[in-house]
Amino acid sequence: MELLSGGDIVVRALKDAGVKHIWGYPGGAALHIYDALFRQSDVQHILVRHEQAAVHAADGHARSTGDVGAVLVTSGPGATNAITGIATAYMDSIPLVVISGQVPSAKIGEDAFQETDMVGISRPIVKHSFLVKDPADIAGVIAKAFFIAASGRPGPVVVDIPKDITDPNIKVAYEYPEKVKIRSYQPTTKGHTGQIKRAIKTLLGAKRPVIYSGGGVVLGGASSQLTELARLLNAPVTNTLMGLGAYPGTDRQFLGMLGMHGTFEANTAMHHADVILAVGARFDDRVTNTISKFCPSATIIHIDVDPTSIAKTVAADIPIVGACDVVLQEMIDQIEHSGKRPDEAAISEWWKQIDDWRERHGIYTQSRYEPSGGSIIKPQDVIKALYKATGGDAYVTSDVGQHQMFAAQYYLFDKPRRWINSGGLGTMGFGLPAAMGVQMAHPEAMVACVTGEGSIQMCIQELSTCTQYGLPVKIINLNNQALGMVRQWQDMQYSSRYSSSLYEDSLPDFIKLAEAYGHVGMKVTHFDELESKMAECFALKDRVVFMDIYVDRSEHVYPMHVAPNGSMRDMWLSKTERT
Amino acid sequence: MRRIISVLMENEPGALSRVIGLFSQRGYNIDSLTVAPTEDQTLSRLTLTTHGNDHVIEQITKHLHKLIDVVKVVDLTEGPHIERELMLLKVKAHGAQRAEIKRCVDIFRGQIIDVGTNAYTVQIVGNSDKLDAFIQAIGDADILEVVRTGVSGLSRGEKALRL
Ligand SMILES: Cc1cc2nc3c(=O)[nH]c(=O)nc-3n(C[C@H](O)[C@H](O)[C@H](O)COP(=O)(O)OP(=O)(O)OC[C@H]3O[C@@H](n4cnc5c(N)ncnc54)[C@H](O)[C@@H]3O)c2cc1C
Ligand SMILES: Cc1ncc(C[n+]2csc(CCOP(=O)(O)OP(=O)(O)O)c2C)c(N)n1
Ligand SMILES: [Mg+2]
A182 and chain B: CB distance < 8 Å anywhere? Predict the structure, then answer.
């Protein structure tokens, strides 16, 4: 067997785990590993400008490919800078392995230089973590970390490695385990047969069914099963913010997103449903509105790989623990085998009702906002122009705020893993580094980062990383000169007292800023130049383009749930109209 | 309702902090907790008492199970079970008090395990109610110090929590 140092083992194990790119930032405690990286070419290290961005970039890679993202940071400040990124991945169940350097074993606990208890600090926001105690354990721990991150409900795993463990002078035998087995960890995949039978019976008997699907369908690679089942049942489908793309956005059976900023038809259909099939969705508070008023007449079937997601906020009538691809396939097979079909008359009645809702207040059947014109560019129209310029086929990352909601509502994703955003934690600063991760994984693809002038400044330093590695992402900055989402809440709940949501003329000239990093900047202030500039932007295939688009400052995101105490169907449809 | 939850987990550093962290992170209560390795040195057995409605208890057991280091979880209070707790008390004991305390210890089937000129150290084993009752019986004023192990428990019969 080969004898290798701990540092070399880390890198070899990463390679054997299938890692091609690792995002990170060096520092004392990680230098043995960095030296090992230098002496090989299988694993490419990408140097970011801030550790938070390293994690978001690896996260973007993971979301767009389904692989585990990899990160390497040093101890102390390197580790703490990574925390926001880890929490972001944790909330959205994204598989990552984050390797952090640690002070030498003998110094742990002494408040040594750049010491921080990484395992302790990250404990509530990781799926699992390891502190490596022996160079001989490294390969096994890394293999376990990748297995845990990717299996069951995915999530980030931290591997903290003291500096002495990677000492170049201590060599041990290297062997990457062929198979990982952890006796205390066996995620369920196959659903309970009896429960699946009950679920099918309930679905076939439904008169007003709705399929409410979430991020779990994207994570579990179950889009084709979801689509097939929806077709079999002729049931309407709505997706959470995290589930967008898991069901084709342009399909007739798709009602759009549900929840706080969901469509009128999706939220209203949920409210009136008699059967809800929830799959890979976790009944988040941004979706349900007031729990006690949630979908009063629905029998709820809930499929989730994680038992803690089931009956956490909303009780499930038919809980099914299992992987959604396996469970949905089993449902399809059983329905086809039984030869039974749903009640055609009832379902067509239901569709009539839904189509009526669509006609009345749908955001896709009519324009629900004032038109753009002259120097007024509506943010919604920017997303529509982006959709057009990219043929609906781009990877779109986003930051957090109004622009995120407009992108979710108006860019109709037909494929999973195309919409990359921070839903659970809502991390401003996610968009640009995530776009880098996506672009690195898909060098030929169009990658757009929809952002706001607030969010982009939280990780803007990464424009430099884009320069170094030639990552030609397109930045679509919906510049409303305000922390728009905050300002919207201040309009609605605080009589327009704009406490710290405005910048008072302090915004940078984004064009010059982009140019300073060697990129192309484009300013758009008039509606009639929007489409052509957008096309020009995507024609510059090999360049980073920063499109600074001045959008209507006063626009709000609608629909918006009435809260507190509202139900799913209680929504503001505009500044003056309420359901 | 009070529950006794028994957890079989890997005897790894950090495993205990994950269990405790789970409770504080999610706002669950821990009323008592005891943990030690089992006959198999690679495993430890943790027993904790908590309270909450059925929904909360269900989430607690599910979350415990979700921890990677946890092998098995059982809510002992769901079935017939045996629970025991050990308490050591140091009580003031001089003059006539000495006989009185001795009698009380006998009634509760405890033992006096250390004797000083002015104090006794008493050991009592039983379920938590019995220990509470003993404290009541001898009266707070005389107690110098109390230490309790927290509850340990097993289910009755042949059912066993093991690999
Ligand atoms: C400004 C802002 C506004 C928002 N507004 C909305 C809104 O209007 N509507 C909305 O929906 N969200 C909104 N969100 C997002 C919201 O906060 C949640 O992130 C989101 O609703 C959760 O999506 P989800 O239920 O699909 O769960 P996810 O967080 O995607 O969780 C996935 C679930 O699937 C399970 N799972 C994972 N893998 C599998 C598998 N293989 N098989 C089965 N199950 C699996 C997991 O256990 C988990 O329960 C908003 C966020 C922000 C920042
Ligand atoms: C790191 C972080 N801090 C604060 C917030 C709270 N927050 C949510 S949206 C928002 C405003 C975002 O402004 P901008 O990026 O310009 O987007 P807009 O809403 O204007 O489109 C803020 C401050 C957050 N989500 N993340
Ligand atoms: Mg803004």
Answer: yes
